[in-house]
Amino acid sequence: MMMKNKLFKIGILLVLVFLCSSPFSRSEAVAESESKVTAVSAGFDHALALKSDGTVWAWGANEFGQLGSGTLIRSELAREVSGLSDIKAIDAGKYFSVALDKDGQVWVWGYYNQTTNVENFDVKGIDGVLSIKPVKLAFAKDILSISAGETHGLLLNTAFRVLAWGNNDFNQTMPGSSTILSATPSILKEMNSNYNTHISAGATHSVSADIKGNVWIWGAYSDGFNEIPKQIISLNGLKKVVASFGEMGRGYPGEDTYAIDGDSRLLKLELDGTFKVISNNVVDAIFYQGNMVILDSDKRVSIASMKESPSRVPNLSDITQISFKNDTLLALQDNGTIWSLNSQKSLKPEAVQGFDKAQNELNYFSDMKGHWAEKAINTLASKHIVDGNADGSFRPNDQVTRAQFIKMLILSDPNKYQLDNDKQTFKDVPKEHWANHYIESALSGGIINKDDYSASFEPNKPMTRIEMALMVGNTVSGFNSSSLKQNFTDSNEIQSSLGDLLNIKNRVDGKELLAKANGRLNYLLDSKIIDGFADGSFKPMDTLTKAQACSVILKLAKL
């Protein structure tokens, strides 16, 4: 018994030593003194970047919520994924994204169930498999490593056990089970006896390796199908395992397994326990739909189809990490620059824009250069709080409607306001209306009161400055005096318009409501969240412009 305990302790020590010297996921962050990009990950048509301050940025396609913006709007420029902090690893699946925080919790967003009719999804998701904002993955605790496949994912926890979740149509998630989908991760019982150190999720199969260098595969792949994990080979000094994505994206052809051994050789692993050496001096390798991308020990990148010898990408050096899906290569330079190229169009890499400037200095819109609200608008755009028009413009002097302003308020504090589209309070804002869930959230969050309106809300009605002040005042807890302190030239008009909005003449508590509104207005003015004009007026009935709205939202959210 003493000998067994001693061997057990030695085994644990070896595992810990191995973990300290081995990268745990495709994109683990490295602490930096300045906020720069430390990891990248490519999805099917979207991309993720991790910065050293623990924030995650996303850009590209967003039809399934894979950008985590709370919307389904595509973004050509990278924007921060709200609701995430202290993230240390990222990985992008086909239409979904995964992040691992420093506490070992896993966050997911997007869509990973290919068996569900996507036309039925809403902002809350279906059965936990779709979300347009990051949500914690249930039962995923004490996680060390993440790997996102096409429609499933693998996790490795602090007990060195493999967990799997997502699509299971080829038993790539739950070996031996007839269940098509696992919305929450579960430990693979077949792997309980192993101290696993590496994981990799492909399109239809999964791979793991333990501390002894034993490589296990399950699911569907080029040469067969395993309902339960099967050990195929044992390698000394194993550095990494790689599950390729099939030539057609899903299915058996091209679903192969690779590894990088202790001599930095890239090996193709066969089911009979043999292997074929593909290349030497390899740090990382990715295989997707018949294409191969290699990062070598000289920090150079090579790319080729599986039928050709790899050739180096010109003008691309000092690369520390690569990611590749759907013909798009992302390469991270050691100075934090992200380079991108499409392998089917050109081998000339282009720098991904947006990471060499502060977020409020990015030009998200074609008509904002030099505008007084440029920085405020760009900051909100970087966080998906505002979006532009189809022609790339923002039109800052356009009027803001009630629905548009409420959406901005809700998105500026996503942790405070939860989107809700299961109700219909106003007859002109049905459940299918694009702003229904924002307006219902504003009602439940106290931003607006249904008694202040008739049976209709008039969501397209232009916002006035006094209505803006009333809504913003309802979001703060500050209160300063029950009468307006600041002596505006149009103070009487302010009180009259406030009274009309609150309908005080027909309400028993009208005077109390007016006093409360004045107190909050005082607080907003004292806090410089809202201001009057240089001529001493407030202009309560003037319509609010998009630029003015962005300025207020930025001050309110303190972004």
Automatic annotation (TrEMBL):
Stretches assigned to the SLH domain: 360-423, 424-486
Source organism, top-level taxon: Bacteria
Gene3D superfamilies: Regulator of chromosome condensation 1/beta-lactamase-inhibitor protein II
Keyword Signal: yes
Keyword entries, A-Z: Signal
Pfam families per record: RCC1_2, SLH
Record's protein name: S-layer homology domain-containing protein
Signal peptide range in chain numbering: 1-26
High-level lineage: Bacteria, Bacillati, Bacillota, Bacilli, Bacillales
